[in-house]
Design a protein that fits this description.
The structure is a homodimer.
Chain A: H1 5-12, H2 19-27, E1 30-34, E2 39-41, E3 49-55, E4 57-63, E5 69-76, E6 80-81, H3 84-89, E7 95-99, E8 103-109, H4 110-119, H5 123-147, H6 150-160, H7 162-167, H8 170-177, H9 181-194
Antiparallel strand pairs in A: 1-8, 2-7, 3-6, 3-8, 4-5, 4-7
Helix pairs in contact in A: 8-9
The first copy, chain A, binds a DNA duplex (30 and 30 nucleotides) through α9.
Chain lengths: ~200, ~200
Amino acid sequence: MNSKRPLANFLESFIHFSEEEMNLITESFEVEKISKRQKLLESGKVCKEYFFVVRGCFRMYGIDDRGFEHNIQFAAQNDWIADISSFYTGKPSLLNIESLETSEILKIHQKDLYRLFEKIPKINRVFKVTIEHKYIELQNRVMQTFSSTADQRYLDFLEQYPSLSNRLPNTQIASYLGITPEFLSKIRKNLTNKG
Amino acid sequence: MNSKRPLANFLESFIHFSEEEMNLITESFEVEKISKRQKLLESGKVCKEYFFVVRGCFRMYGIDDRGFEHNIQFAAQNDWIADISSFYTGKPSLLNIESLETSEILKIHQKDLYRLFEKIPKINRVFKVTIEHKYIELQNRVMQTFSSTADQRYLDFLEQYPSLSNRLPNTQIASYLGITPEFLSKIRKNLTNKG
DNA sequence: CGCGACGTTGATTTGCCTCAACGATTGTGG
DNA sequence: CCACAATCGTTGAGGCAAATCAACGTCGCG
């Protein structure tokens, strides 16, 4: 199946898998086309699936007491997304996952993933490394949030995620940075005046 | 060795290890007494060791451009601490790890940990779960930072980490919450007036 | 004892939010 | 293919949460 090629490539970039192993893996995933603004996970439900993004873009976000949304992370092609907290604890998720573009994903159900972990233990490593990456990202983000003002964080975002900042609406970027869209607009105005 | 007992208990709470396995594991760790304000890791150096806290308390923190410190996380007894980012990438750390009390730790060198991963693969699971916990903690923290004001975050901290909030100086808690000690003091005053 | 870390308080400033209003752009159904 | 709604980006006036700066009291400890 053609849309499973990116997953195979992604996995191979970590460890080599035999053809048999790779078949077992890719067969455990299901292709799905996702329209814009479609939800993969809704808060209150348990996250039972892990998603690999083949093409398109997603955001994971929470909603606070006053009804405001806050983006926790984005995921574009060749990235993974799931509410790890809910997935591993089995508790209802506090977060939502939603597409920001027409997208295509590969999804694997929890029980199939656990079966893969048993049958092909070395695939554990891929998921361990993936979480480590996301952990590091969050750690940097906490540090950055406490260290710098919003305009610096915006500049850092542009530099760190050029491919994302091109395609995302500013409202989504503002939500990720923890500021209002209005204030981001003012930051952008200031920057063009200077640059 | 008596001070390795807590580690053995911790590991057993996840998976069972044979006596032989457990010996191999505990022998890979070295006991170390740590005095107050002693550093286990200094920014600029590569984090080559993973630490298990037997007793006492530590903080991991970064220093921003203006010289201000920001606490990323605390670790008390039965918790792990290391700069995972530096440990796994091999790059110099941006963070510091420092004791806040007289403490006792078990430390394992990277090469010994990797040897354990090979010889006793199932121990991987313990470290995977540990990182997942810390990932979830960070995720909640980002969400909380963007959602609520400092007094709410302070109350949440008291509730979530009662054993830490008892023993930590308020300056350290303020640094963790991302506010100044002065402002935390004002928050506390307001709360006592109300309560 | 005297020094350094810690906690507190007040006056002032600032980064960012709130609310309201208004173009521009996109998209969607008739 | 146009009309209209919805989303997005911008601008301005005013307000609030938290920082800054400075001063001072307390406590533990070498």
